Amino acid sequence: MLAVSVPFSPRLTVSPFASQLSFSSGDKLLVHTKPSSDWWWAELQGVTGYAPASYLQPDGAEEEEEEEEDTSLQDPWQDEEYFGSYGTLKLHLEMLSDKTRTEAYRQVIFSNSASLRNKVVMDLGCGTGIISLFCAQLAQPSVVYAVEASSMAAYTRQLVKQNGYEEVVVVLQGRAEEIELPEQVDVLVSEWMGNCLLFEFMVESVLLARDRWLREGGVIWPSSAALTLVPCQADSYFSEKMAFWEQPYGLDFTPLQPLAHQEFFTKPKFSHLIEPNDCLSAPCDVICLNMYTLQVKDLEEMNGQFHFCVEKPGVFHGFTAWFTVHFKSLEEGGTTVELNTGPNSEPTHWKQTLFMLDKPVSVCAGDSISGTILLRRNPVWRRHMTVTLNWNISSTGETDSSQVGTKTFPMWR
Ligand SMILES: NC(=[NH2+])NCCC[C@H]1O[C@@H](n2cnc3c(N)ncnc32)[C@H](O)[C@@H]1O
């Protein structure tokens, strides 16, 4: 039997059954049987009768619902889940195994080793401490404050000791926004980039730490970041998820295509590997961030524009996004290190992010695809955002035509 509560005062309905149970909002009914999906046989204070199922919810669901609301308000950063995930090795192994990513940071430290002598460094979100260990191994900073909020910090302290750098690297467990450092820092380094550059919004923590701990004239690494977009073909993804239902095993499964569309094309596809020849045009940097001037409030809404000239005929399945970050040298005129996660660079664990259109469009060379991209941060779930793409495809073929489209993708809420 199911105890149910009445979440709101039911409107009067005419029951097909003579004996309808009367009840009010907040009443707890005992459900004896469910003869139909609409009407259940229930009991309230010894009186039995039929109650409309749509007015009932499992007992305690209301509290659960409130709790759900509360946790989102109490923990909009989902810190428990977020830092919990970084307390295990899985993500750190993925990041450390990403040689393109990790070697880029190593190159930054190595090529700036002379200028790092006697500097005070903060490694924000140090994880296993790899960047801090590079600083101690390749340069002679006076101190590196390795800040890590997850339980991994305890192991990071062991790794520092194990490698004999406890005189240089100080591991501090806590959120960068909350910990206290004994001094300002000369260099703030962090590997904060998420899928589509901003997902997870760890960048906010970097900006807060910059404002609080980076001394005047100090250096932040990466010093700039860019989100890049390109219109692309995604034949294999499209056939795998959509065309598949045309005639599997000689049967017509097309009634499932709306479901497939909802399930596979509504959200972006993370970890998509785009081939260079899937690109229908040259890519375009749509959002550029200067890490010295970027403000937290700027993260709420970030706009970009694009204008692509289609270079070859093909099918426009969607847009692919990736990011590039730059690490300006500490020395005047020194070399800037670049970490590019695009299709023409060595692959990284981020790969690229694919945004599938509702309907593929055939395009010809010379067509143009122009429009805007809007990244809007989720006002409640602070690590999430939506990506809205607006586009206009204009063909200059024999029949001048243009097609406009817009689509909003949640990442992930
Ligand atoms: N590139 C990313 N998308 N993630 C890679 C870096 C994430 C690391 O920084 C830590 N981390 C993230 N935010 C913070 C913070 N505000 N304070 C301290 N550690 C943090 C997190 O626990 C993890 O170990």
UniProtKB/TrEMBL annotation:
The UniProt record lists the keyword Transmembrane helix: no
Query: Which superkingdom is the protein from?
Result: Eukaryota
- Enzyme Commission numbers on file: 2.1.1.319
Subcellular localization(s) per the UniProt record: Cytoplasm; Nucleus
- In the UniProt record, does the keyword Phosphoprotein occur? no
Acidic residues composition-biased segments: 60-74
Name the PROSITE patterns on file: SAM_MT_PRMT (PS51678), SH3 (PS50002)
Keywords, in A-Z order: Cytoplasm, Methyltransferase, Nucleus, S-adenosyl-L-methionine, SH3 domain, Transferase
Q: Which reaction does it catalyse?
A: L-arginyl-[protein] + 2 S-adenosyl-L-methionine = N(omega),N(omega)-dimethyl-L-arginyl-[protein] + 2 S-adenosyl-L-homocysteine + 2 H(+)
CDD domains to which the protein is assigned, alphabetical: AdoMet_MTases
> Which ranges carry the SH3 domain?
1-61
GO biological process: one example:
methylation
Q: Which GO terms describe its cellular component?
A: cytoplasm; nucleus
Give the span(s) annotated as Disordered: 55-74
UniProt GO molecular function = histone methyltransferase activity; protein-arginine omega-N asymmetric methyltransferase activity
Q: Which residues form a coiled coil?
A: none
Descriptive protein name:
Protein arginine N-methyltransferase 2
Organism, per UniProt? Answer: Anabas testudineus
